[in-house]
Amino acid sequence: MSEINFYYLEEATLSNLDRIFHTADIPFIRLSKFLTSVDIREESKITRDENIGFYKRSIGEAFLGDYWESDEIINFLKEATGFNLKFRTSQGQIYDSGDYSLLHTEEFEKERLVVVYDMTKNWNLDWGGYDIYTSPEKDPLICNRDEGTLMLALLKEGDYSCTRYVSLNSKSSVKLDKIVYDLK
User: Which Gene3D superfamilies match (predicted)?
Assistant: First the structure.
């Protein structure tokens, strides 16, 4: 069973997370070493998924399975963001060399909380594969790979996120769970 790092469950930390989240240009939090124990589904069925000009990657069930629907994570997200959330979807994604997703993939999305849990190992910054969050007339957030990091971004209609192009020189793969929650 996956378990949240106790530090992130402390009342003072949760209060600070909520404050930080709501004062950013694009409401965003990045939490390193988020889980102290991780129960990864290694047997998840992964298939190639490509829509030229939109994305090229491998997808399947979330690597952490039903964890993203659990009371533990939903209650944590509520405390950290102040929002009542309803789970919409989760997906395991792998980006190998030459893979990408582009911002306009989310063109018609409504307001949502996008959560990404990074399981990428041995990553070199020169290989790209950044996560990008953008909103009209605001500077984009560009996030490097960091194993064990949880990223939360509140995206409104017209806001986008993507995993940028992975260099053909990459010797590793980007591995993440991407989860979307609707605001109640």
Answer: q2cbj1_9rhob like domain (2.60.120.620)
Nearest to 154 by CA among 3, 49, 28, 24: 28
pLDDT tens sequence across 23-36? 988 899 999 999 99
* Topology annotation, domain 3-183: Jelly Rolls (2.60.120)
Entry pTM: 0.93
Long-range contacts of 168-172 (CB under 8 A, 24+ apart): 168/97, 168/98, 169/97, 169/126, 169/127, 170/96, 170/97, 170/124, 170/127, 170/128, 170/129, 171/122, 171/124, 171/127, 172/120, 172/121, 172/122, 172/123, 172/124, 172/127
